[in-house]
Amino acid sequence: DKEARVQAAMRAVLASGLKPGSEKRYLLSVNQAAKDFNIPPQTLRDRMNGKKTRQESHLHQLRLSEEEEQVLVNWVKEMGRRGVPMTLQTLQDHASEISGRTMGRSWADGFRSRHP
Fold first, then answer.
1. CA distance 19 to 99
2. Nearest 5 degrees, angle CA 107-CA 113-CA 115?
3. How far is residue 28's CA from residue 101's CA, in Å, rounded to a whole number?
4. Cβ distance 23 to 64 under 8 Å?
5. What is the pLDDT along the chain (116 residues), one digit of tens a residue?
6. Angle between helical axes of 41-48 and 2-16 (0-180°, round to 10)
7. Do 18 and 24 form a contact (C-beta atoms < 8 A)?
8. At 100, is the secondary structure helix, strand, or coil?
9. Distance separating alpha carbons of residues 91 and 110, to the nearest angstrom
């Protein structure tokens, strides 16, 4: 997983410590850490400078919070255990009840891709 490699590279750079006499240059360079962990150097540089992940950047666009989505996942699993067929419309309807907002087909497709 790329995010795990980015996190590991960041930890490695920070753990290497600062170069003597420097306030922001690390003993392990960002370029070397990127190479060692097989990630793009700009990605590591951006993350070291506080840039959010793609997922973090889009949290404000989510129609359900993580907790609400987990409630929905648990409900879908329970319906499956009971043998209740799950249609996209049923999923959309229940998600709409949880959020108080209408969920469309593209939301349901995205939910299915997040929770295969």
1. 51
2. 100
3. 49
4. no
5. 999 999 999 999 999 999 999 888 999 999 999 999 999 999 999 999 999 998 888 877 778 988 999 999 999 999 999 999 999 999 999 999 999 999 999 999 999 998 98
6. 60
7. yes
8. coil
9. 12
